[in-house]
Design a protein that fits this description.
Blueprint: H1 8-16, H2 20-42, H3 45-64, H4 74-93, H5 119-136, H6 141-152, H7 157-164, H8 168-188
Length: 196
């Protein structure tokens, strides 16, 4: 049987029966979304990596202790664990609601899709991404969370609603207001977010 083709639920069940390979597949399957969510929140690649590791340590411990109830939302459950660990970290650091403006060592937008562009085009594109990332932090926390979960973690609005304990309509409304607020911020700051 090829494990990587199994659903999250099936892999969790196999892990509970002793298959270490199944948990490794789950971690690889969801690594990018979980890590990106953490990085977009903490703005520090080293810290994001630590929190990512802590997240999956807690996932494994929770699975071992039987604290995961299968409901078809494994990724949402993992992101909730990551979210709680981020909050715990900032509480411990007494830095809740503060973000580092340090440049990231690894540019998450740097990939082969951009390799054919000129240096000038790439510089403009990178500036746009930086401006958008900065704008996100001007949003109210509830709107910011929906934007990050949707566009950086890739969750559906149903998953976002489950993760944030609100209705789908509320999640959609928060996204709508986030986009309206970002448009206002773009006008206020006189930003040009278009490629030539």
């Amino acid at each position: 049987m090829v494990l990587k083709h199994l659903s999250d639920r099936e892999l969790v069940e196999l892990y509970r029966k002793g298959s270490q390979e199944s948990i490794e597949i789950l971690i690889k399957r969801h690594r990018n979304k979980v890590y990106t969510y953490i990085l977009m929140t903490v703005k520090n690649p080293a810290l994001a990596e630590d929190l990512f590791q802590d997240t999956f340590i807690k996932v494994v411990r929770s699975l071992d202790a039987g604290r995961y109830q299968e409901n078809g939302r494994f990724l949402s459950w993992v992101i909730r664990i990551a979210h709680n660990l981020i909050i715990d970290y900032f509480r411990k650091q007494n830095q809740m609601n503060t973000y580092s403006n340090d440049d990231c060592e690894n540019d998450m937008f740097n990939n082969q899709k951009f390799s054919d562009r000129t240096v000038e085009e790439e510089m403009v594109r990178e500036q746009i991404y930086q401006d958008v990332r900065k704008l996100i932090h001007f949003l109210p926390e509830e709107q910011r969370e929906v934007v990050v979960l949707r566009h950086y973690a890739g969750l559906s609005f149903k998953e976002i609603a489950d993760h944030t304990n609100v209705s789908i309509n509320t999640a959609l409304g928060r996204m709508r207001y986030a986009l309206i607020n970002m448009r206002k911020l773009i006008e206020e700051k006189n930003l040009n977010l278009t490629l030539q």
